[in-house]
Write a structure and sequence with these properties.
UDP_glucos_trans, about 500 residues, Rossmann fold, binds uridine-5'-diphosphate, 2 domains, UDP-glucosyltransferase activity, about 40% helix, Glycosyltransferase, transferase
């Protein structure tokens, strides 16, 4: 039975994320936000992910304390049963993209053990908050008579574009073109938004097929949920939030959830930093305000060709700009090629003093919030895009896969807080090498000069980015739109719980 405070239930939420960094990180932030309001958040994790995320909450909470507001429910990952190698519990540890469907099989196999746990749980959590990528959670809600909220870690812009494309069967009506680079417009949106087929993610392309693909299963789980929360804020994409509100039963924008971490050093997010944070801050302190470009391509871009990264390295150097460049270290073969190039060319010596390379995991939110950072070159993963917006940092957009081309449009065209580096084709995640070198050094240099440079257009972009950060900060403060939306979501869950007979639970 849920506990009571001032006549209000303090709710026990069970959070069910996909085991991938860009899903786990915002889920853990969400848990912190719920706990901050006095509710209990139990997060489903697997053993290796629990070890990774323990420090993310340990500073705030003592997990050993049974009264702690953030709890971990640790269940074994059924990787072996699905044919994954030992110890592979997170998307970032898949040996190759060929294992992706096995990874999703294993994620789906979590349903059984979670049902057993819920069967035995006494008291049982009051409400589920589930990753959209785990549509089987709809069955849990039904079987245990639990309110279920779907959590989206992508933008309303993406959700609405994708919805319109599918509903109006836009792509099926397009003439077949050899290279898929003819632009087509997404109908019925607040702005004139065009894409090419080459920019469309695989999921969207398969959505028009007869069985509707994975998107149909996600959609069904979303439509039967009691509500939908999105890690965004209304002011960032108001027309699209309004548009998507017309699609689902209830929608609450509750982000940017990352802002709950912005106060300080030692905030562990996702993985342990590969650089001593105080050294990193010392380096940033030595740079002038707004002068540093931060370059990072998220948590799972691990297969970018060494030759592509060398083009980037030369572009960064020739721009003359200060930079922090985060390089992921595996798979071995590409990083070895890059490592030997960096060594033979004495690259790090050449850029010493103005270029800092982090090999592995960077404390991204900490870096973005430093006043020396004036630009963010990003692959446009949604978390990174939102973290850049929350920090008031304009972006160079370098989309690669999934919904990243949608995010580029929102940043560059709708909000005008970024410039494109000029990528035209979506690649398959994990097979980045197949597509070859897409961005040459001159394009890198040019984009940096446009973003970081002088007056006029550049200044206007920076002003808009700063304004957006103010709006983001206000959104999550008491009385702000995201703060209120979280209250509305909680109120709605309470209303549902009041209507549920919980005597037998
Ligand atoms: N991230 C980080 N340090 C890194 C790389 C990534 O902290 O070195 C975090 C980043 O702040 C973001 C998440 O990992 O919260 C990446 O999510 P995103 O949606 O941007 O991209 P994805 O990993 O899904 O490609």
């Amino acid at each position: 039975m849920a506990s009571q405070r001032e006549g209000d239930y303090l709710i026990h939420f069970l959070l069910v994320p996909l085991m991938s960094q860009s899903h786990l990180i915002p889920f853990v932030d969400l848990a912190k936000l719920l706990a901050g309001r006095g509710h209990t958040a139990t997060i489903l994790l697997t053993p290796r992910n629990a070890i990774r995320f323990l420090p993310s909450v340990a500073a705030k909470e003592s997990l050993a304390d049974s009264n702690s507001k953030i709890q971990f429910l640790v269940l074994p990952f059924p990787g072996k049963e699905a044919g994954l190698p030992d110890g592979c519990e997170n998307m970032d540890s898949l040996p190759s993209p060929d294992f992706i469907s096995k990874f999703f099989d294993a994620s789906n196999l979590l349903q059984g053990p979670l049902e057993d746990w819920l069967d035995a749980a006494d008291p049982r959590p009051d409400c589920l908050i589930c990753d959209i990528c785990l549509p089987w959670t709809a069955d849990l809600g039904l079987r245990f008579n639990l309110p279920r909220i779907v959590f989206h870690g992508i933008s309303c812009f993406t959700l609405l574009c994708s919805h319109k494309l599918k509903k109006l069967k836009v792509m099926g009506k397009l003439p077949q073109a050899a290279d898929n680079t003819e632009p087509f417009q997404v109908p019925d949106l607040p702005d004139e938004i065009s894409f090419t087929m080459a920019q469309m993610p695989e999921l969207q392309l398969s959505a028009d097929k007869k069985d509707g693909g994975v998107l149909d299963r996600f959609k069904a789980a979303e439509m039967t949920a009691d509500g939908v929360i999105v890690n965004t804020f209304e002011e960032l994409e108001s027309g699209y939030v309004k548009g998507y509100r017309g699609v689902v039963k209830r929608l609450w924008c509750i982000g940017p959830v990352s802002i709950c971490n912005t106060n300080g050093v030692g905030i562990h997010r996702g993985n342990e930093s590969s650089i001593d944070e105080s050294l990193c801050l010392e380096w940033l302190d030595s740079r002038s305000p707004g002068s540093v470009l931060y370059v990072c391509f998220g948590s799972i871009c691990r297969h970018i060709l060494a030759t592509q990264l060398i083009e980037l390295a030369i572009g960064l150097e020739s721009s003359g700009c200060s930079f922090i460049w985060v390089i992921k270290k595996d798979p071995e073969v590409y990083s070895r090629e890059l490592e030997s190039w960096l060594r033979e060319e004495k690259y790090e010596e050449r850029v010493a003093g103005r270029g800092l390379i982090i090999k592995g995991w960077a404390p991204q939110v900490l870096i973005l919030s430093h006043h020396a950072v004036g630009g963010f070159m990003s692959h446009c993963g949604w978390n990174s895009t939102l973290e850049g917006a929350a920090a008031g940092v304009p972006m160079i957009t370098w989309p690669m896969f999934a919904e990243q081309f949608y995010n580029e449009k929102l940043v560059v065209q709708v909000n005008q807080t970024g410039v494109v580096v000029g990528v035209e084709r979506c690649m398959t995640w994990g097979k980045e090498e197949e597509i070859g070198v897409l961005v040459r050094r001159d394009a890198v240099k040019l984009a940096i000069e446009r973003l970081m440079g002088g007056r006029g257009e550049g200044e206007e972009r920076r002003r808009k980015a700063r304004e957006m950060a103010e709006l983001a900060k206000r959104a999550v403060e008491d009385g702000g739109s995201s703060y209120k939306n979280m209250s509305l979501m909680i109120h709605h869950v309470r209303t549902l719980l009041n209507g549920i007979d919980r005597s037998g639970r």
